Amino acid sequence: MLATASPSPLSVLHEVFGYEQFRGPQAAIVEHVCTGGDALVLMPTGGGKSLCYQVPAIVRQRAGRGIAVVVSPLIALMHDQVGALHEAGVDAAFLNSTLSGAEAADVERRLLRGEVTLLYAAPERVTTPRFLAQLDSLHERGLLSLFAIDEAHCVSQWGHDFRPEYRALTVLHERYAGVPRIALTATADALTRQDIVERLQLEQARQFVSSFDRPNISYTIVEKKDPSQQLLRFVQDEHEGEAGVVYCQSRKRVEEVAQMLAQQGIDALPYHAGLDAAMRQRHQDRFLRDEGVVMVATIAFGMGIDKPDVRFVAHLDMPKNIEGYYQETGRAGRDGLPAAAWMAYGLQDVVNQRRMIDESPAGADFKQVMRGKLDALLALAEATDCRRVRLLHYFGEVSGPCGNCDNCLNPPQVWDGTDAARKLLSTIYRVQQHSGITFGAGHIMDILRGKASDKVRQHGHDRLSTFGLGGGFSETQLRGVLRQLIAVGAVSVDAQAFNTLQLTDGSRAVLRGEQTVTLREGVAAPSGGRRRAGGPKPTAAAVAAGLTDDGQLRFAALKAWRAEVAREHNLPAYVIFHDATLAAIAAQDPRTLSDLQGISGLGAKKLQAYGEEVLRVVGAAR
Ligand code: ADP
Ligand code: ZN
Fold first, then answer.
1. Residue 58 pLDDT > 50, yes or no?
2. What is the mean pLDDT of the chain?
């Protein structure tokens, strides 16, 4: 193939993707990679990582440098990723086990001819002798232009998606030293980042660290009372008809919650590793292809899901750490439109997470790291100040109150729980002294509040000096105190012995009054204000585009048309056009093809393929 002059990255962005400008650090990253540099890109979900390697791949292919190999762990999503590139007129392909022998052979033939621009494959395939031999052949002919290693945190055991196969990817560097590599991830705590650099031998790579802020996501963490009902209210009141993900800890809980939502008329589906592969794929396809599906899932679901219009991510159980929480919540609002991250959190979450660490077979050092990470998340959950400030601080960023989280929007009343905490600890201590054993939370709180239950009397605990000492505190208040004491490690829960409460080394500081305990007052939840009387709620894209009633009609017509096209092409609707693009078209009310020029997300290929149709649909809705 003849080397030709490279097109400019910006012209590729305009022509192929129909976007006006690079976002944030994209321009610098693309420039660096186009000129052959290695890069490590840390960017939050929705930040626009894909373009960071897709644009260089196209630029370098057009300059005669051959193909880019994209390493991705997500076989189930490759079809759609490649489909999206086809829609934009880019010659992309994937190689994985879902292809028939004939299809795979065809891809390999095109690959060896250096025709493909981007080839997607999973790490276990990339490192096979057969595939490496094919890469050798390309390399010898100067037709291996780039390696993109997506979801690079999979190489690290500190990340939350550790995939041992990623470790073998060092072969790419060793075997094809001159070929640039770009590794990308949305997980960026210092430990994981260091691990990625070492494991993938990216010491020489330039690091591009974006702000991790997702300003369009509103964070809310509520106290868990009746989680199913709380979730239902959140979904019905604030996200009726919208796509969302609900994360639960266990498969059983996933099933229950999905069923509960479905019974309430919400289009909810379960997803967890215990479902057979065909059903998982079917549910994922429904989530990606249909509008307004709520996926109730374990963390097995979500990595690489690039559906842009997920309007909420809810956690019914607390994740393990802030990276996990941020990664999962980050799946909301990739399109930049308002989205919500909502979590219900309670005493049991603290107990469960602590226990999982204690009972894991990992070594002491590993457990120590895991405990530290859990503590940071607990502090976030207990926080009475801006959630975003804390989240960003965790990723090393300094920021001010965001005005778009629960604590900013509805500053919680706080009260000084230090006295209550000391009384609680004293009670645990006295009970232990008196009976030689300890008891669970309910019993301890009964004593403190002066409730002479049968059990209390039976053990003579109504004669303890702390009996009734906390009569002025409500049970909710004491639960909050206890939760925070467990969160900070001043009380431990012995899962082996009926969840009894134990004092720890950390109790002393609180007992001595050296550590204060600040708690949120159980604020009455603000009523969800988005529910409107009558008529369907306008979508986030329609609101953002400021559509008039006529505009709404055009938007609806365009969406119906898009659904048909998507079905014909067997692709999710957003791969054809994003909501924001359709809303922009509806607002523009175009009469001619040139009216369509410059609409964001409408590249040359799409304009050519769909321009006339779009005009017809808009005209018919006029
Ligand atoms: P990530 O992989 O970092 O989560 P994506 O690559 O999926 O993010 O991009 C998120 C969304 O932002 C996508 O819908 C993408 O089309 C859009 N996007 C990315 N870069 C730009 C840009 N420069 N201009 C407009 N939209 C962009
Ligand atoms: Zn805030």
1. yes
2. 91
Q: Please give the distance, rounded to the nearest whole angstrom, from the Cα atom of residue 48 to the centre of ligand 1.
A: 3
CATH of the domain spanning 415-518: 1.10.10.10
Q: Is the CB of 19 under 6 A from ligand 1?
A: yes
334 lines ligand 1 (CB under 6 A): yes
- Average pLDDT, integer, range 593-600: 94
Domains of the chain by residue range: 9-209, 217-365+388-411, 415-518, 540-620
Per-residue pLDDT tens digits for 123-146:
999 999 999 999 999 999 999 999
- Average pLDDT (483-506) is 83
What homologous superfamily is domain 540-620 in, according to CATH? HRDC domain (1.10.150.80)
**Top-tier CATH class for 217-365+388-411:** alpha beta
Q: Ligand 1 pocket, 294 CB below 6 A?
A: no
pLDDT (0 to 100) of residue 527:
42
Q: Can 9-209 and 217-365+388-411 be said to share one CATH topology?
A: yes
**pLDDT score of 158 more than 80:** no
Domain 9-209 has CATH 3.40.50.300: yes
Q: In angstroms, what is the span from residue 105 Cα to ligand 1's centroid?
A: 32
Spell out the residues 6+ positions from residue 419 whose beta carbon is closer than 8 angstroms to its own.
none
- Nearest residue by C-alpha to atom 19 in ligand 1: 48
- Ligand 1 neighbour 14 (Cβ under 6 A): no
Counting ligands in written order, which one lies closest to the CA of residue 387?
2
Q: Is the CB of 210 under 6 A from ligand 1?
A: no
- Among the bound ligands, the one closest to the CA of 215: 2
Identify the band that residue 493 occupies on the pLDDT scale cut at 50, 70 and 90. confident
Is the C-beta atom of 308 inside 6 A of ligand 1? yes
Spatial CA neighbour of 156 closest among 146, 147, 164, 168: 164
Which pLDDT does position 103 carry in this prediction?
A: 96
Tens digit of each residue's pLDDT (9 = 90 or more) over 193-220:
899 999 999 999 999 998 899 999 999 9
Q: Is the pLDDT of residue 525 over 80?
A: no
Question: What is the average pLDDT across 533-538?
Answer: 64
Output the residue whose Cα is nearest ligand 1's atom 18. 48
pLDDT in tens, 166-182: 999 999 999 999 999 99
- CA–CA distance, 235 with 205 (Å, rounded to integer): 44
**51 CA → ligand 1 middle, Å:** 7
Ligand 1 site-directed mutation target among 45, 120, 210, 334, most atoms within 8 Å of CB: 334
Q: Is 211 exposed, middle or buried (0-12, 13-18, 19+ CB in 10 A)?
A: middle
Long-range contacts of 439-444 (CB under 8 A, 24+ apart): 439/500, 439/501, 440/498, 440/499, 440/500, 440/501, 441/347, 441/479, 441/482, 441/499, 441/501, 444/482, 444/501
